[in-house]
Amino acid sequence: MVTLIDIQHAYDRIRPYIHRTPVLTNRSLNDLTGAELFLKCENFQRSGSFKIRGATNAVELLSQDEIDRGVATTSSGNHGAALSMAVARRGGSVTVVMPQNTPIIKVENVKRNGGNIVWCEPNLSSREKTLGELVNLNDAVVVHPYNDERIVAGQGTAAMELLEDQPDLDCIVSPLSGGGLLSGTLCSVKNLNNQVRVIGAEPMEADDAFRSWKLGKIVPNKTTDTICDGLRAQIGTITFPIIQEYVDDIITVSENDIIAAMRMIWERLKIIIEPSCSITLAAVLNQKTIFKDSKVGLILSGGNVDLDQLPW
Amino acid sequence: MVTLIDIQHAYDRIRPYIHRTPVLTNRSLNDLTGAELFLKCENFQRSGSFKIRGATNAVELLSQDEIDRGVATTSSGNHGAALSMAVARRGGSVTVVMPQNTPIIKVENVKRNGGNIVWCEPNLSSREKTLGELVNLNDAVVVHPYNDERIVAGQGTAAMELLEDQPDLDCIVSPLSGGGLLSGTLCSVKNLNNQVRVIGAEPMEADDAFRSWKLGKIVPNKTTDTICDGLRAQIGTITFPIIQEYVDDIITVSENDIIAAMRMIWERLKIIIEPSCSITLAAVLNQKTIFKDSKVGLILSGGNVDLDQLPW
Asked: Would B85 be classed as within a structural domain?
């Protein structure tokens, strides 16, 4: 299990290489939700998403020998770009296995940060098979996008900053997919102040974590047909037990509600965020009674959106 | 002429009702321009633009009798919404004469803030005729969007904040249309530190201020066929002399360059801004030698963009 000390050490390690992202508030969203919202803006983070936190932590822990062997991963885009940035700083190279339906902006971000791309089919087995072949061929070191304690510890630093800025939160809502961000959030928040509720928000169209949590065992996604291109992964064997132990609730959200919440944040806050994190606002709007009159932190995980493919 | 004291008094008057907007920096835009940029984010301002500064200053100076008579104005949208917000707080009502080609989001902003809309043709004479009829009919008090010293003083507070946050700027670039923001910027900056250069950025497709400045007398727009819906107005008789006296340069920018700069800011900074202010970045990109190695403030004047009508 990832401890608070692990997260604090991760924070010391990555702090020189990341932004301290702002926490925004917005009166009109508060009026709409009946809650007081605090939006942790990881869309303004380096590489365009929170993924730089975990990736940097993992890469800083690699030996020079491991860097020299080359690093490989699978990614829906943001982890690939972040890992490429972190490895490039150490003078190494990264190969990223990406599904063919990745938004162009995420492909460009990987390339701009020096990553090499190998395409796969947009499903779990093709991802893992392609990555396995790469590792066999090149003896590359794998830094998994979420199922890795170094990644979990790094991602936990976002909620740590949020609680430092806003210590009186009643609740934090995190996007949920492979579980890296949510499990990191749980490991930091529940150890800092276990009165703070932590809730995951997952697309109905890729709800493996919600169903796994209900059943008490990992089950696969039935579909990954969601606009949230960052939330199509499968819950991990390392992240799932953390979620099982600590999470207070998981809310699933429809595609229409995710898109409506995305547009609302763009129009009211004048910031660009991905649907993969507007899902947190959609969860609050869908379950207003749970959040009424509470101080609620939303982790806006990223801002890498293809401006030619907007969903409205 | 608007003095520094006028601007400081305006600031004392409006401070409770406006946001102190952040100044953002971005490494990749610095690399691209060869300058060090400081972006004053009035897109995050209340009502979605800097216009709330001048409107609030003017409205706070109205007597209760004037408020009771009703307030009228013409506006391409942002001034109308800001004025509606400021007047509503004092319990009055506003009628806004708006051109029929106003983006829907700006129409909605006026309505949401309680303003009544009267439509006109998208040209100066129709605007003025419609407003004149309104005033004759209702004895309404006019608060002009820019040709008014109370407005100029209010708009000057944005650059005052920017210089307070970043006192070592070499240069500030402001959008230029009717001249309220640029003349306010000039009145504050040139009185605070006349070493700071101030440059206006105007669309080639609505370049009346540039041509007037070159000729030494006010001439009308030949076209207003620009995507910058906030920059289609005619330079004012109050704002023009201030610009003549103080401005260091006016740079005109093509539509394609305005759109490219807008997209660049959206993608790199993850913030939503109007083309009417991406023109400032476009001006820097067009004239890199002027700005090379300088610290340059850009006033990002607003963020009210119709998300269904993006120019790419």
From this structure: yes
